[in-house]
Amino acid sequence: MATTVLRYEPKLYTDGDCLPESEHMDWNDCLLILKPDRLPIEQQLPPFQLWKGDGGFGCTPGTDGDAVFAISLVTGERRRWRRSDFYGVLKPAYQRWQAN
Question: What's this model's pTM, rounded to 2 decimal places?
Answer without folding.
Answer: 0.84
